[in-house]
Amino acid sequence: MKKIIYELKIMHVYRHGVKQPRNPWADGPEYITQCPIQPGSNFTYEIIFPQKKELCGGMLIVIVTGVPKLSDAFTINGQPGDLYPCSNETTYRLLVQYGKTYLLRIVNAILNEELFFSVAEHNLTIVGTDGAYIKPVITNYIMIIPGQTLDVLVTANQPPSNYYMAARAFVSGTFSFHNGTTTGIFQYTNCCSLPLSILQYTSCCSPRLSPSFPNLPSYKDSAAALTFTKSLRSLANQDYPVYVPQNINTQIIMTVSLNLLPTPEASCARVVGNRCSGGLNNISWVMPSTAILQTYYRQMEQNIFTYDFPDQPPWSYNYTGENLPSSLLVASQGTKARW
Q1: I need a labelling partner for 25 at 20 to 30 A (CA). Which of 2, 252, 297, 301 fits?
Q2: pTM
Q3: Residue 121 and residue 49 share a domain
Q4: For 229-237, which contacts have Cβ atoms below 8 Å and span 24 or more sequence positions?
């Protein structure tokens, strides 16, 4: 068990891949499992780590004041790499030996952006994500979201030399982002001691000045991102069964939409006196005064939230269409749950 104390800003902590059985009190968005930590106060997080030698996901703690600024560089293990003017003397190098297989635990420690990552001329075998084993996936690139951990096997089986590892953003929207590429070097170290049958295919003892560069997808290649995420599968098999419920008691159609809410403040107005708000089944969430889990546990639900979250949106429409029907633009408001 590890205790972590934070005393700075209103914040909460979310953990990828660290399961917390019967310890749900400090995991998730504010006012759901806990109230936010107020400035000047403190809260002790009790995080239960596995007793056995199991995989644990990444832990990313970000303290933000105001609107996040656009980054001016991505990094691999703290170094932007050769394509930036500030670190080409200290570009991160992963030293490998021909014939060996390496486990890379890759964590996206960026606040807001997904990343494509690849190692030039080498296959990547994905064996785990967020602390859970998956069916092995062989690919030449990955797409990793903020806070996510991927466990990747890489075999050093190419002609010994230097190869770039590289990462760049994947962006599916129209907002501003850093359109740079960070690099590291996958560097063979034992090549001069290799058999002549291998050395004849490489100039290993005098490595090339310009390492081979990976073929990364474009920053807007949604098809590449979707292809990768669809390839990830549970380890479910005869030895590791996954039991899926067969009897369904309640069917819920849940729509996630961008709605409008009337606002009297001109400074908040975005669309003719309205402001934008997210909605589920056309209901915009209202922050309660006490966290939902706390009120449920202490049987204090009255006047905090209600159990009448609807099974479906108020009207049927083309749920996959680009535009929300005008009749559903303005959301209702409520603090609703479903039993």
Answers
A1: 252
A2: 0.72
A3: no
A4: 229/143, 231/126, 231/137, 231/139, 232/126, 232/129, 232/134, 232/137, 233/134, 233/135, 233/137, 234/134, 234/135, 235/132, 235/133, 235/134, 235/135
Whether 267 contacts 292, CB under 8 Å: no
Token output for 211: 């390492």
Count Cβ neighbours within 10 Å for each residue of 187-221 and write b for 16 or more, e otherwise. Answer: bbeebeebeeeebeebebeebeeebbbbebbebeb
Tokens coding 159: 């002609």
Range of the domain at 132: 93-231
Specify whether 218 is located in the same domain as 119.
yes
Handedness of CA 209, 186, 177, 62 (dihedral sign): negative
Residues 236, 187: contact at Cβ < 8 Å? no
* Overall number of domains in the chain: 3
Reported residue count of the chain is: 339
Do 215 and 272 fall within a single domain? Answer: no
Q: Give me the residues paired with residue 280 across strands.
A: 256, 283
Reported as a single tens digit per residue, the pLDDT across 241-266 is 888 888 988 899 999 988 888 876 65
CA 304 remoteness from chain centre? 31
Same domain, 297 and 223: no
The DSSP 8-state label assigned to residue 146 in this structure reads T
Q: Is 98 found in the same domain as 226?
A: yes
224 and 267 share a domain? no
| Residue that finishes a domain, picked among 231, 266, 296 | 231
DSSP 8-class letter at 224: H
pLDDT tens across 292-337, in order?
888 888 888 788 899 999 999 998 888 877 777 888 888 999 999 8
Average the pLDDT over 162-179 and give the result: 90
pLDDT category of residue 289 using cuts at 50, 70 and 90: confident
